[in-house]
Design a protein that fits this description.
Shape: rod-shaped
Helix content: 10-25%
Distance between the termini: 134 Å
Number of strands: 25
Structural class: alpha+beta
Number of helices: 6
Largest sheet: 25 strands, mixed
Strand content: over 45%
Amino acid sequence: MASSNSKRRWFTWRSLAIALLLLFVIGYVFSRWAVHRWGPGLRQAAIEMLEDRFQSDVDLKDFDVSIWPVARLHGTGLVLRHEGRTDVPPLFSIQEFWAEAPIRGIWRRPWHINRIRLRGMKITIPPKKDDKQPRMNWKKTKNFPAFVEVITCDDAVMVMQPKQADKPPHQYDIHSLVMRDVGLDRAADFTAKLTIDTPPGDIDTKGKFGPWNADEPGDIPLDATYTFANADLGKFNGIGGLLHSTGKYGGPLEELGVQGETTTPNFTVTVGGHPMSLTTDYDATVDGTNGNTYLHPVNARLRNTFIVANGMVAKTPDNKGREVLLDVVIDKGRIEDLLYLVVKAEKPLMTGSVRLNTKFDLNPGESDIIERLKLNGKFGVGAAQFTNKEVREKLESLSRRGQGHPEDEDAGSSISDLKGNFALGGGVLSFQQLTFSVPGASVQLSGKYGLKTEELDFHGHLILQAKLSQTQTGIKSFLLKPFDPFFRKGDKTSLPIKVTGTRDKPSFGLDLGGH
């Protein structure tokens, strides 16, 4: 009995194996016949769908189909030319593609495709049409809908064509892209990774893209979030730090709105060498046709100083890079934060509240940012105090002498009304109408300070309330009396002065050359 059952099971498994083999052979023979019978029809249907939905002429070099045990498609050399135009780059070009679908998925509407894999994809978005140009009558188009569960693509490129023919296109390199639930009549979910060189870092982004707009591809809506991690600012000669940014963006491709925030805990300007915490939040608009970014505004915090900037990051006329043009305002700031950023000393020269506004112009290039940066503005400092003991002692002495009480130890030395106009160019900070006061005296200076050399070269006037002879005591006071009229102007004494030397060793003295 046992032997009989064993034989029966053996025959059962052998019958099943034979049946499966027969089914496979029949399926294979049928699939070859079906491919021969319907393959050209599938190719033509695919071409017609692409031509209709993208309003393009379609070229397809190779197209192979197998339908057993699942439908598989493979093709090369797919090119779509928008509205048949050969005077501009193709709307789409794909070097090679693969697709897989259940057999029933290619016979129903919409076509249901499990997955598509693309290699060597390039998308070129043409500039927006003029209002006078005709639009497509979509009521006359055929309906060849398709639905794809997953599309994957590595190393894709999207190019936005500018409106002006003499301007270069703007290119976006996409390291990897995955799209889900894709149909031309709907928005698709996507995730993407971009690796960029300037500054070096990885961008991870996800959101929704679509639906497709054949009339205006540049108007395709986009709604997504992003994370930009470990961007090395050291790529820009003259600054350093690792930047991290998160945010969101959306709108049509040609005009994306972007909002986000950045954190750089170790932001450094090389000439100063002091790492500082820098955070920003921003609202911007990106012109997708050229990559120009319009900032409105950027709110930044540098330690205890708040900065507001409006402006743009735009391509230069010679197309050799991007220029940063900003209007910068500081209403709530600390002068020690700004000095600490660009001066090498461990202790800033001065403390106090600061108000500042300036034009900010950073040209592209490989040289140190301090060499390329241009500033032109004005500032004012309140409750200023110098941190250098020698400078404080000189100001105390100046205050006493200016009041005509050179030996009065109680004479004050607090600085007030420190303000002036400044300009930065070529790494040299120049000042005009730099003025400040202490009780009994005021100073008016013009000159320059080298951010790298730290050399001082200032010339101007010291205005005293007292007569020249009143600034001294004893025999010195007596000997100076004859000179009082030469330096007295009305009820003030004006002395030409200069400040030279270096930041560490400043030299104060009379500037009698030419007098």
